[in-house]
Design a protein that fits this description.
It contains 4 helices and 7 strands. It has 2 domains: 110 residues, no CATH class; 31 residues. It is α+β, with helices and mostly antiparallel strands and 187 residues long. 13% of the residues are buried.
């Protein structure tokens, strides 16, 4: 091989590392699935409580592994990346990817229906102390179930009264107007 085409070993390694990093960056921001949405919501809420910031200040960067997410936030006068792992054993592990000095483990529980995750975490820096709850977004099926549950949890007299009013309104709509009385011819 001619000398002008030879690349030093150090440059080949750097080029290989650059290609690998670019490949990873292009693969990372894949859209999150429904389970990922729930985990990400829990991660953002815990980080919000830790750093006393609003949840909309955190940005999803990517997914490193199953249940392990990279989340970005502007903190300590610079952009920081945090790793948040939602473990199946009921723990959320949060670690600062940049400094690695901060590492927190927060226990969480799953609701009986499996649609919500609950955690208790408070930070001395943040005045918010209420429990953290992350739930799946409600879909059309959930709205129908809620409507049925609300309907059947009302007292029977109020249900009957509503039905009576609805029937009365229909009867009034279907009734034909009475003919106008014949005039006496007066003007």
């Amino acid at each position: 091989m001619p000398d002008h085409l030879r690349v030093p070993v150090s440059r080949r390694g750097g080029a290989l590392a650059l290609c690998l990093v670019l490949g990873l960056l292009l693969a990372l921001p894949a859209p999150a699935a429904a389970g990922d949405d729930l985990n990400l919501s829990l991660c953002k809420q815990i980080l919000s409580r830790m750093l006393c910031k609003k949840t909309n200040e955190f940005a999803y960067v990517g997914k490193v592994d199953e249940g392990v997410y990279v989340i970005s936030v502007f903190y300590a006068s610079k952009q920081s990346e945090l790793l948040c792992a939602v473990m199946p054993d009921g723990q959320v592990v949060v670690q600062d990817r940049t400094w690695r000095a901060m590492r927190r483990v927060v226990p969480y529980t799953v609701s009986p229906d499996g649609k919500c995750l609950h955690a208790n975490y408070s930070s001395p820096d943040c005045p918010v102390r209420k429990p953290i709850t992350a739930c799946l977004p409600k879909g059309p099926q959930d709205a129908k179930e809620q409507q049925k549950e609300t309907f059947w949890n009302r007292p029977i007299p109020s249900i009957l009264e509503e039905e009576y009013k609805a029937m009365s309104a229909r009867d009034q709509q279907n009734a034909t107007p009475a003919p106008a009385p014949a005039g006496n011819g007066e003007k």
